[in-house]
Each structure stands twice: as structure tokens, then as C-alpha cells.
Amino acid sequence: MKTVLDAKDLVKTYHKGKSMLCAVDHVSLTIHQGECLGLVGESGSGKSTLARMITSLVESDQGTILLNGKVHMVFQNPQDSFDPRRTLGDGIMEVFRNHGVSKADAKQQMNKLLSIVELQSEMTSRYPHQVSGGQCQRAAIARAIAMHPDLVICDEATSALDVTVQAQIIRLLKKLQKESGISYLFISHDLALVQAMCSRVAVMHKGKIVEQGSVSKIIKHPRSDYTRTLINSAI
Ligand SMILES: Nc1ncnc2c1ncn2[C@@H]1O[C@H](COP(=O)(O)OP(=O)(O)OP(=O)(O)O)[C@@H](O)[C@H]1O
Asked: Cross-referenced InterPro entries, in alphabetical order (predicted)?
């Protein structure tokens, strides 16, 4: 099976005055094509820093990242994916235009994407603040998959949405995975969501991966105390 991400021994330390914080502490991760790997851990455990290292938004101090294909990110706040002064349509079209696609072709490809993410085409003339969170997240997903990435990192992508919209977005992500073989790194603090989305999970605590393996196995037989606490707090 093709590996889309092979990250080895990643380290990121933040310096604040004289103190140092190791946000990501010798982390290794592998994701295969078509796989959804869950990444769980409490707030501040280093999940977003790790995601940003993989997408080169944060520079690593140490380690190697091998990416087989393109990677895109979907953020917690869907509005963050778009410029507030431009329409959603312009935001999606920009991806194609940046890759040298003509305006007419970009429009045609955007319309295809809209039907994939089940978003009405009239939404493209609206600004991010003029649509609901769920509609904006669908547009953000359209933008993320526009250039056919092999890996999409969803960083708490459904956390800001209410539960019914959350379920719709999860269904959409699963549909995309099934139809186009996209792989996901699915970051969440919600174990039930991870269970619905992923077959494998990595548990992060204080910058370290404390265990990883099949979701059902880890939930049934957690090995670390921290994972046990996480499971108990989810019940
Ligand atoms: N740019 C930065 N400068 C200094 N410290 C940072 C920076 N970014 C993150 N940190 C710190 O690194 C640690 C890990 O943060 P990170 O955002 O990666 O955690 P997280 O698990 O994604 O948390 P959350 O679930 O709340 O988003 C935290 O203690 C955070 O305060």
C-alpha cells in the first residue's frame, strides 16, 4: 500500500523568554493511501503544531517528513480558510488560478467541486460571514480538495459546528475518502467522532505519541494512563 505520509522523529520547541516548551517531542507517524488516522489529545498536547509542521506552516527543529503527493488542511473555523473581503467563489477559484487554469476552466471545475461537496452554486457569490458554518466548511473542503491532494489534514474541522451539521460533514469526508481514495489526518479531542471516522488512532500527550493502533483496540484495551483518562472523560 502506498504511504502518503512518513514523518520521523519530529521535534518542535518553542522559546518564551528563558523557558522552553517542547510542543512536539520526537513524534513519528505514517499514513497510508485511503487511510484515516485519528489524532487525539487534550488541548495543548501539540496536535496543531504537528499538523502545521506536516504542512510546512511551522518549521521543524528536527526530523524528516516524506510526503507522497499534495497535502491540504481544513481548519476548525471554516472562515479561516477564506479571505473575509472576497466571495467564497473567488476563494475557491483562486486555487485553480494559482495553478495557471484559465478563468472559464476554473469556473467549470469549481462547479464540479460544488456538486461534490453538495453546496448550492449561489453560495459562491456570498462572503464568508454571509453563510452558515456548515456551508462555509463545505466550501473550505471544496477548496482543500481542488487540486486532488493525497492527504487532507482536518484540524478539529467539525468542532465549531452543531452536532447535526457535524454529522453531515463527517458523511461528506467519508464519501470523498471512498470515491477518491483521499487519506486524512483527523485531529479531534472527541473520541466518538474519531471512532466514527478512523480505523487507526494516535494518542498525543504533552508533545509525545503515547500510543497508537486500531481505534477499537485502544478503546477496549488502553495501555497508557492518559488514554484511560481520555476514554473515561468521553463516556
Ligand atoms: N507559536 C507558538 N509560540 C509559543 N508556544 C506555542 C506556539 N504555538 C503553540 N504553542 C504552545 O505549544 C503547545 C502545543 O500547542 P498546540 O496548539 O499544538 O496544541 P493542541 O493540542 O493543538 O491544542 P488545541 O487542541 O487547544 O488546539 C501549547 O502549550 C501551546 O501554548
From this structure: AAA+_ATPase, ABC_transp_ATP-bind, ABC_transporter-like_ATP-bd, ABC_transporter-like_CS, P-loop_NTPase
Cell of 229: 483518562
Partners of 20 in the β-ladder: 15
Residue nearest to atom 31 of ligand 1 (CA): 44
Confidence check: pLDDT of 235 > 70: no
Q: Are strands 200-205 and 3-16 parallel, antiparallel or unpaired?
A: unpaired
**What is the pTM for the complete model shown?**
0.92
Please work out whether the CB of residue 48 comes within 6 Å of at least one atom of ligand 1. yes
| Amino acid 28: pLDDT | 97
Sign, CA torsion 233/170/31/60:
negative
- 44 CA to centre of ligand 1 in angstroms: 5
Give the pLDDT of residue 122. 93
C-beta of residue 219 within 8 angstroms of C-beta of residue 190: no
Measured between alpha carbons, how far is 163 from 113 in angstroms, rounded to an integer? Answer: 24
Does residue 207 have its Cβ closer than 6 Å to ligand 1? no
What CATH number has the domain spanning 3-234?
A: 3.40.50.300
Asked whether 41 lines ligand 1 (CB < 6 A), one says: yes
Domain boundaries, the chain: 3-234
